[in-house]
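Bump. Still looking for Plantacyanin structure tokens.
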Amino acid sequence: MAQGRGSAAGVLALVLLCVLLHGELAESAVYTVGDRGGWSFRSFTTGGWPRGKRFRAGDVLVFKYSPSAHNVVAVNAAGYNSCSAPRGARVFKSGNDRVTLARGTNYFICSFPGHCQSGMKIAITAA
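Sorry for the wait, here they are.
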């Protein structure tokens, strides 16, 4: 009988773990970068888009833009500060890219010549 109770407790623990994991995923938010303006100069020259938003690891950023005019490159802090994409950086160019935030600061730039230098870059810190 004790073995049966142990098995039931194990199954209950597994079900509880699945519910908690599902709840964590269900809490992820989806943000369209730049809101209606999308990933564009207009949205980022003021630098205000992320202001007032609370980002968490697992949240999704959606970058909407014209792929003939822009791209999105996930960079490190040095790439963000220097407006350069390090070797092996992940480049997005579909015009409707979805990026899941990692814990910490996530950096993105547009690598089209002059775009990042003109302010088309964003740093998002996810708790």
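The first helix runs from residue 2 to 26.

Edit: fixed formatting.
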